[in-house]
Amino acid sequence: MRIVIGEDSALFREGLSVLLASAGHDVVGRAATAETAVAQVREHRPDVVVLDVRMPSDDEGIDVALQIRAWDPPTPIMLLSQHIETRRTVELVSGGAIGYLLKDRVLDVDDFLAALERVAAGGTALDPDVVTRLLGTARSRSRVDALTPRELEVLTFMAEGWSNQAIGSRLFLSERTVETHIASIFAKLQLPASPDENRRVRAILAYLEATGAAHSRVDD
Question: Which of 3, 32, 130, 180 is such that its CA lies 20 to 30 A from the CA of 190?
Answer without folding.
Answer: 130
